[in-house]
Design goal:
Layout: H1 3-11, H2 13-32, E1 35-36, E2 42-43, H3 47-58, H4 72-100, H5 103-119, E3 125-129, H6 133-144, E4 148-153, H7 156-163, E5 173-175, H8 181-186, E6 194-199, H9 204-217, E7 223-226, H10 230-238, E8 243-245, H11 247-260, H12 262-272, E9 289-293, H13 297-308, E10 312-317, H14 320-323, E11 328-330, H15 336-341, E12 349-352, H16 357-370, E13 375-379, H17 386-392, E14 396-398, H18 400-413, H19 415-423, H20 429-443, E15 449-454, H21 464-467, E16 490-497, E17 500-503, E18 516-521, H22 523-534, H23 536-544, H24 552-562
Parallel strand pairs: 3-4, 3-6, 4-5, 6-7, 7-8, 9-10, 9-12, 10-11, 12-13, 13-14
Antiparallel strand pairs: 1-2, 15-18, 16-17, 16-18
Helix pairs in contact: 1-5, 2-3, 2-4, 6-18, 9-10, 11-12, 11-13, 11-18, 12-20, 18-19, 22-23
């Protein structure tokens, strides 16, 4: 039985008994009290007529006396029955309203709607556990790409925000504890269209529970977990979680990369940022003496990255316990004297890394009064404060939520991208600069979109017949299917074959079944490439130049070519 209906009936037990009893008494009285027919002969109402009369009387409709005018005795009983049934209805309606306002009943109804919405999904979707700063940014990013998401959060206010976000796609959202396996199953963990799950709550233990449930119930499903504790990260690794993100450690590593290899840093930013936005400006943080305000989770990891890059770091924190080590200067970054004691006058860079946005902005302003030439990195914790940080104009604004979002997009939307970035990390900075120039030439100064294509029947059905013979070169996927003598603005970044990764494969590389190719370029180029790999007529035109119309895809291509 439907749980909502069962709960409603259980709560309505007393009101229903009262209503049934009132109707039974009223109907029985109408049957037993004799009336008169048109000729003055005694007559009794049937149960049907009595129930009919009481029904419209109790509901205040009032058709009249049936089948004959009532006697005074009957009218007296009707008067009693009206008060009895109406009062019973008021009592029942009050109980119904009380049940409808009950949080547990509303939760049951919401769970039912959520379960039906998820079960009805017929396109790939991602489960997002946690709809805070990071989760909301990730859902918007996927919505921008036309990818559906399902949201689960224990905070009702956040779920309400998801329902009111104004996204292009409908996002099923549920208030529930993600640590419960039943919640994840309800969210679609075992749904065939679910292509991944991300755990982005602020509770590492909850994220660990999500990771454990996902790996045990559906081992092949891609899992991304946010984790800020090294111990919890080790436990996640024991469950085989392939991608664990510590936003603070990740930014610390990125900052160290920007100091040592700015080309690699810029390459990472370009390939993981939101597509079609203007390309981020190159980041050139100076080397030397840095002042770090805030030695919490963020500051400690950033300091580690700076020191690994060979920089001196003076740390300021208000926690006296940290100052006992002699490494941290106890005080507030908003105190000009403390900043000067930390060497802000000779510093090349400042990091305002506390958990309070207002304090970070204050540190920025005070430090610039002492040293206007500072390279300033400001941590932004709340999305709503974006206008304030734009007005303050730090050299770099770090939002931990966006660091996680970029990593999630890179891993889930283009699984090969993470391997590619890791494989080229040891390449010279000049190599990264050359690749950046090639990407900029094909993207028209816009952030490229990254995607991968697997050479199989599912993703490349048009190519599948000729792949086994090794007849199709990679160059086929670089041809404009509307104008075969022109090249698509795409760049093949990597080719994976039998677990081995080839970086920047040449166009003459022959494709084989099962190959996965990572591309980057504009979104419209991706859509054109899809036509080539999915329609045999389009592929025939690309390879031979022969026009053999057939199918709606080819009709679209031919129309576009003639335009």
């Amino acid at each position: 039985m439907n749980s909502a209906l069962f709960l409603a009936l259980r709560r309505m037990r007393a009101p229903l008994i009262v209503l049934i009893g009132a109707y039974a008494i009223a109907v029985l009285g109408m049957v037993l009290i004799p009336g008169q027919d048109g000729e003055g002969m005694p007559v009794r109402m049937s149960f049907f007529h009595a129930f009919y009369f009481i029904s419209y009387t109790a509901t205040t409709i009032g058709f009249g006396e049936v089948p004959y005018p009532f006697t005074n005795a009957q009218r007296l009983w009707v008067t009693f029955s009206m008060y009895l049934t109406v009062i019973s209805w008021f009592y029942a309606l009050g109980k119904i309203l009380q049940i409808m306002q009950d949080p547990s009943f509303q939760q049951v109804l919401a769970s039912g709607r959520f379960r039906r919405s998820v079960a009805g999904l017929r396109e790939p979707f991602l489960i997002v556990c946690g709809y805070g700063e990071t989760g909301s940014e990730l859902v918007e990013a996927f919505d921008h790409r036309g990818v559906r998401t399902v949201v689960v959060d224990i905070n009702a206010a956040r779920v309400s925000e998801a329902n009111l976000a104004g996204l292009h796609l409908d996002v099923p959202a549920l208030v529930a504890d993600v640590r419960l396996p039943d919640t994840l199953v309800m969210a679609g963990l075992e749904h065939p269209k679910c292509f991944g799950i991300v755990a982005l709550t602020n509770d590492d233990d909850a994220n660990l529970a999500v990771a454990a449930a996902a790996r045990l119930l559906r081992p092949s499903l891609p899992v991304v977990c946010r984790c800020e504790s090294e111990e919890t990260a080790r436990r996640m690794t024991a469950f085989g979680v392939p991608h664990i993100i510590d936003p603070f450690a990740l930014f610390g590593a990125h900052l160290a990369t920007a100091l040592r290899k700015p080309g690699h840093f810029l390459l990472h930013e370009w390939l993981t940022a939101a597509p079609d936005e203007l390309l981020p400006e190159p980041l050139f943080p100076p080397a030397g003496h840095w002042v770090l305000c805030g030695f919490g989770r963020f500051g400690s990891r950033v300091a580690r990255g700076l020191e690994q890059a060979g920089n001196q770091v003076a740390i300021i924190d208000s926690d006296p316990a940290l100052a006992t080590s002699g490494k941290v200067l106890c005080g507030h970054g908003t105190d000009r004297g403390v900043l000067e004691q930390a060497g802000i006058g000779r510093a090349v860079g400042l990091i305002a890394g506390t958990a309070d946005d207002v304090i970070n902005l204050s540190i920025l302003q005070i430090a610039r009064q002492v040293n206007p030439e500072l390279f300033v990195v400001a941590r932004r914790n709340q999305r709503a404060n974006g206008l304030l940080f734009d007005a303050a104009r730090p050299s770099v604004t770090v939002q931990p939520a966006m660091v996680v979002v970029h990593e999630c997009l890179a891993y889930l939307m283009a699984p090969l991208l993470g391997r590619f970035l890791a494989a080229v990390a040891d390449r010279p900075n000049e190599w990264a600069n050359e690749l950046i120039a090639r990407i900029a030439a094909i993207t028209e100064e816009r952030v490229p979109e990254s995607w991968s294509v697997t050479m199989d029947d599912a993703e490349a059905p048009a190519l599948a017949p000729s792949l086994a013979a090794g007849e199709e070169p990679l160059a086929i996927l670089l041809v404009d299917p509307q104008r075969r003598h022109e090249r698509l603005p795409v760049l093949p970044l990597a080719l994976e074959r039998d677990g081995a990764l080839q970086i920047l494969p040449p166009p003459e590389t022959l494709l084989a079944p099962g190959d996965r190719v990572l591309f980057c370029g504009r979104g419209r180029a991706r859509r054109k490439q899809y036509l080539t790999v999915s329609d045999a007529n389009v592929l025939r035109y690309v390879t031979t130049g022969r026009d053999v119309p057939g199918g709606w895809i080819w009709d679209r291509v031919a129309t576009a070519r003639e335009a």
